[in-house]
Automatic annotation (TrEMBL):
Keyword flag Repeat: no
Protein name: Ras GTPase-activating-like protein IQGAP3
UniProt keywords, alphabetically: Coiled coil
One of the GO biological process terms: mitotic actomyosin contractile ring assembly actin filament organization
Pfam family membership, one: CH
């Protein structure tokens, strides 16, 4: 096959090019044909690669590596998820990042990805004739068929309008000669016939069902009618039921025809712009598909519906708006006829906002957004109304907690509500409801805002937090009047007192306002009292009796029982009190001045203020000469002269200097302070030394008591012999008393004592008798087996024993050689069967089979001759010195490999998994003589367990990897025990239970409702001879609706449970019959996993260990 694209190709990379004018031989033409097939297949791979990249949006490997990349099924499963997400969820894809594949290669679970891809194609409706087998991809048995299926899937999805078109790249891409030759060798290796990629369209059309064919014909008729341009013909074609078109409107047929004509013309222009072979062009490259036609019809319908909505908004007609919004073409979600007013308001606002920058009507998605917002507004309004009704209903009851829970509903949009003030909310709102009737949301908002502020004030009062109380009291939400910021402390003290009086109840708003008013009135009264006290002080200072009497008689003064006849006495007492208070003030002022740092006085004590004042007054009692000059002596002995009137000083003695007589200098003041402070300190010292004096007295008394005690102790020491005699007499008396009691007890129980003594004597005699009896048996002519076992190791080996042991070794060698030869022969026979099968399917020639048969015959003859040569050999005597040394070296090597399993355990994991079985057959099993002896079986078991520990330590990252990763050691262990011994153990353990199940023809363990239902229908029809009136194809739910089906499923479940119990009992009761190696390996597996994963639970470990 040579196409036009092949002739147009240039360069040596295009093997499809024929060199015109050159005559080729038959072999060259055959070689050219094979290379052309390889190049075509590489082009198909490149086409599939680019199509999958366009669908998945990710870069894939090169065409030469694409086959290997597809084997794990990850890319195929992603394609299935792209077009059938319900059939292939993302979480079902195994190893989506291919990390496991890159680490350890292909795993058996990768086949699940291929099966998911097949399920996706089945869901999409692709004909099953295109499906490849799982092994075609996973084992790479027929990879061209998988690529062929990808091409068919792309064309099928393109015709449905779900995927882009796959492009023909034949002759447009170039590959190196090496890549083409490698692909040719790969195709020759598997002997696979290349599928006909060019016939996919015809096969796909032939495989369509009757309904799909009718749809195809109807779509073609619509495209032809659109080309004619007749509206009536187009309308008739669109009305065809086979076209499966929905939401057709007669009034819009003209618009349908014009819209489809433009869409078809645009698609035809795009198809003409693309290059490609004309014979491979698909019809739907220029024709509109059914999906594209439906999309254009939906576009026209949506545009018409949007215009109807716009007209209804212009007319502000709620009913017209609802009818327009309910049109099926808009497919608006959440539309409710009760929300008409909200729809009208919201959509009008949206259109008005859009008209600022555009004159187009609202689009469908804008309508959906508006409907959603309007539904939310309507729901919020209904929820708020229901919440208000709930609050009113709760206020009519007597449950404050329920009222608070209703108020805290978010639909009410109220300020913060405090549950601790539930009684306050309930009481105040209940009173408001009785006064005004049913409360509305606005009234609740204002009331709750005020009550929450009152609750915060109460909370601050309970906590004693003044700052929080002040901030809560002055907030506007509290609504309290006449709050003076300067009286917040007094408000707090007053309301705390009121709160203590009412107890646990909260203060309401009226009580708070009343407390504030009380404090304000009290503050005003105190202010008036201060004014009156000021007038009284002025009268006392002036000595005016009449003014004093008038001030005392004022009501704001707060003085009761004022008698005018005692006015003079009032003046005298008040003057004396004023002078006393002035004297006290002088003391405080004197102490303050003396304590000033500028004065630099030392030893000033606040408690000596009175004495300071008195002594200083005595110092200045002499008359005042009223001289303005004073003299101050400084520390260096110099004098400084200071004028008190002018507040000026000089170092020179002024003319006519006279020192002020009442002025006391710093030294005199310091002397007065020092004397008074020293006297006060001495008095304080005597008072503070009282504890010291008491301690001295206590020490004296202690000394006297200790002296008396020492005298008593010296007396006791001098009388020690007498004390010892007294103690000895007392101990003797105690021991004699205990002995007499014990003797009395034995006399009372002498019969039991005699019986115990007789039993002890009998046991001693019996022990001596048995020892003597064993001595006689040991020295008899026929000693027992137990005695012989103790001394059998001392017996010498005879010549017969050595000959028997040598014969046993020879027989073991023959058995091992026969086992190896039989297994190799079995593998050769399997390969021969495969060759014969390929011959039957015309995949191989007769010459290849005959050649392989000759190779097997020659190989068998060589093996037989080798065996004869070994038999004719003379043993170790026939070996020369070099061979004997080599033999000894091999013996040491084999002994080391047998006794040190770590070396072979590491070698096992260096072998590929595909060659692990042959490696075990050829080396390990032969090295250990297939475990024929106890020693070999033990050493082989040690190898398995060490290899298992090594693999878990290096490769297992979580316990489940033992199940999913298919460990090499477990596979080798099962393969070793899959012989007569292991099969016999399973046959003996499970044979009776399974035999009963197989012989019981009436046993039913089906639990699928559909299968049970169909079986019941078939039995009914067989018994009655008539067709049942019930349908044959039903869903599981419909099948379970029949009582007979339920009864049969219940019986099947009971039978299944009984069968499971029998099998489980057979396994547990015959556990000892299983090979010891399997059980010991299972124990090592559990212990190793427990050591590496200490946090894993026992259930997880046993779940992993069960398959092992």
């Amino acid at each position: 096959h040579v196409g036009c694209s092949e002739i147009k190709g240039t360069g040596p990379q295009n093997p499809g090019v024929l060199q015109l004018g050159t005559r080729l031989t038959a072999e060259q033409m055959d070689e050219q044909r094979i290379q052309n097939v390889a190049y075509q297949y590489l082009c198909r791979l490149e086409e599939a690669k680019r199509w999958m990249e366009a669908c998945l949006g990710e870069e894939l490997p090169a065409p030469t590596e694409l086959e290997e990349a597809l084997r794990n099924g990850v890319i195929l499963a992603k394609v299935g998820h792209r077009f059938a997400p319900n059939a292939v969820p993302q979480k079902k894809i195994y190893d989506p990042e291919q990390l496991r594949y890159q680490a350890v290669g292909l795993q058996f679970r990768h086949t699940d990805n291929i099966n998911h891809w097949r399920s996706a194609m089945m869901t999409l409706g692709l004909p099953a004739i295109f499906y490849p087998e799982t092994t075609d991809v996973y084992d790479k048995k027929n990879m061209p068929r998988a690529v062929y299926c990808i091409h068919a899937l792309s064309l099928y999805l393109y015709r449905l309008g779900l995927a882009p078109q796959i492009h023909d790249l034949y002759g447009k891409v170039k590959f190196t000669e090496e890549e083409i030759n490698n692909m040719k060798l790969e195709l020759d290796k598997y002997g696979i016939q290349m599928p006909a990629f060019g016939k996919i369209g015809g096969i796909l059309a032939n495989e369509l069902s009757v309904d799909e064919a009718a749809v195809h014909a109807a779509v073609v008729a619509i495209n032809k009618a659109v080309d004619q341009g007749d509206v009536g013909v187009v309308a008739a074609a669109l009305r065809n039921p086979a076209a499966l078109l929905t939401n057709l409107q007669e009034v819009l047929m003209c618009i349908y025809q014009e819209m489809l004509r433009q869409a078809k013309r645009t698609k035809a222009e795009r198809a003409a712009g693309r290059q490609g072979a004309s014979e491979d062009k698909d019809m739907y490259e220029e024709y509109l598909t059914q999906k594209e036609i439906q999309e254009n019809i939906n576009t026209v319908n949506i545009r018409s519906a949007v215009e109807q909505v716009d007209e209804a908004l212009d007319a502000a007609d709620e009913l017209s708006l609802l009818s327009a919004l309910q049109l099926p073409c808009l497919a608006l979600r959440g539309l409710h006829t009760d929300n008409g007013p909200w729809y009208l308001d919201q959509l009008s606002a949206d259109r008005q906002q859009k008209d600022q920058g555009s004159v187009d009507p609202l689009e469908a998605f804008e309508l959906q957004d508006g409907v959603t917002i309007a539904n939310q507004d309507a729901q919020r309004a209904r929820n708020m109304h229901a919440a208000v009704q709930s609050v009113n209903a709760s206020l009519r009851g007597n449950d404050p907690r329920h009222t608070v829970s209703c108020l805290m509903t978010s639909e009410l949009q109220l300020p913060e509500v405090f549950p601790s003030a539930a009684k306050l909310y309930h009481r105040e709102l209940q009173l408001l409801q009785r006064q005004t009737g049913e409360l509305q949301q606005e009234e609740l908002f204002v009331a709750v805002e005020m009550l929450s502020a009152v609750a915060l004030i109460n909370q601050a009062l309970e906590m004693g937090h003044l700052q929080k109380f002040s901030s809560s009291l002055i907030t506007p939400s509290a609504g309290l009047s006449d709050v003076d910021h300067d009286l917040l402390d007094r408000y707090f003290e007053c309301l705390v007192g009121v709160k203590q009086q009412v107890g646990r109840d909260l203060l309401n708003w009226n009580q708070l306002q009343e407390g504030i008013n009380t404090v304000n009135i009290s503050a005003q009264d105190e202010h008036q009292q201060l004014l009156a006290v000021g007038v009284i002080n002025q009268a006392v200072m002036r000595g005016d009796v009449q003014q004093l009497l008038s001030a005392l008689l004022l009501h704001t003064c707060g003085v009761d029982e004022v008698t005018p006849a005692n006015a003079c006495r009032y003046l005298t007492l008040l003057t004396r009190a004023r002078q006393h208070k002035a004297q006290e003030n002088k003391k405080k002022q004197t102490l303050r001045v003396l304590s000033l740092p500028e004065v630099e006085l030392q030893g000033v004590l606040p408690d000596c203020a009175t004495e300071y004042q008195r002594e200083l007054n005595v110092s200045v009692v002499s008359g005042d000469n009223r001289s303005p000059w004073v003299r101050v002596r400084l520390q260096d002995g110099s004098w400084y002269y200071f004028n008190l009137n002018r507040l000026e000083g000089s170092w020179d003695r002024p003319n006519g200097f006279i020192h002020n007589s009442v002025f006391i200098d710093h030294q005199e003041i310091q002397e007065v302070v020092r004397s008074i402070s020293a006297s006060y300190s001495r008095s304080v010292l005597w008072q503070s030394s009282e504890a010291l004096i008491i301690r001295l007295q206590a020490l004296s008394r202690g000394f006297l008591i200790r002296r008396q005690q020492e005298a008593r102790q010296r007396y006791l020491v001098s009388q020690t012999p007498a004390v010892v005699v007294i103690q000895a007499q007392w101990r003797r008396y105690v021991q004699q008393r205990a002995y007499r009691r014990r003797l009395q007890f034995l006399y009372m129980n002498w019969r039991a004592v005699v019986k115990i003594q007789s039993m002890v004597r009998m046991w001693l005699v019996k022990r001596k008798y048995r020892a003597r009896l064993s001595f006689f048996r040991l020295h008899s002519a026929t000693p027992p087996l137990s005695v012989v076992k103790k001394f059998v190791h001392l017996l010498d080996l005879g010549d017969g024993d050595i000959r028997e042991e040598a014969e046993l070794l020879r027989l073991r060698e023959e058995v091992v050689r026969s086992i190896r030869f039989n297994r190799q022969l079995e593998a050769d026979l399997d390969l021969m069967d495969l060759k014969i099968g390929l011959l039957v399917r015309n995949r191989a020639t007769l010459q290849e089979v005959v050649s392989h048969c000759k190779k097997l015959t020659k190989k068998n003859k060589e093996q037989l001759s080798d065996m004869m040569d070994v038999e004719r050999s003379k043993g170790l005597k026939a070996l020369n010195r070099d061979r004997r040394e080599r033999l000894e070296a091999y013996q040491h090597l084999f002994y080391l490999l047998q006794t040190q399993p770590l070396y072979l355990a590491q070698v096992i994991f260096l072998m590929p998994q595909s060659r692990s079985n042959s490696f075990m057959e050829m080396l390990v099993f032969s090295l250990f003589n297939y475990g024929s002896g106890r020693r070999e079986a033990y050493l082989l078991l040690q190898l398995f367990t060490e290899a298992l520990r090594y693999e878990i330590r290096l490769k297992v990252e979580q316990p489940q990897d033992v199940v999913t990763g298919n460990p090499t050691v477990i596979k080798m262990l099962v393969n070793f025990y899959r012989h007569a011994r292991g099969q016999n153990a399973l046959r003996e353990a499970l044979g009776p239970a399974l035999q009963d199940v197989l012989l019981d023809r009436t046993l039913s363990i089906r639990t699928d409702p559909v299968d049970v239902y169909k079986t019941w229908i078939n039995q009914t029809e067989t018994q009655t001879g008539t067709k049942s009136s019930l349908p044959y194809e039903v869903s599981p739910e419909d099948a379970l609706s029949h009582p007979e089906v339920q009864r049969r499923i219940d019986i099947a479940i009971i039978n299944l449970k009984n069968l499971t119990d029998r099998v489980l009992k057979a396994i547990t009761s015959n556990l000892h019959k299983l090979p010891y190696g399997l059980r010991y390996t299972a124990k090592v597996l559990r212990d190793t996993l427990k050591a590496k994963f200490p946090d894993a639970s026992e259930d997880d470990l046993y779940k992993v260990n069960t398959p092992g």
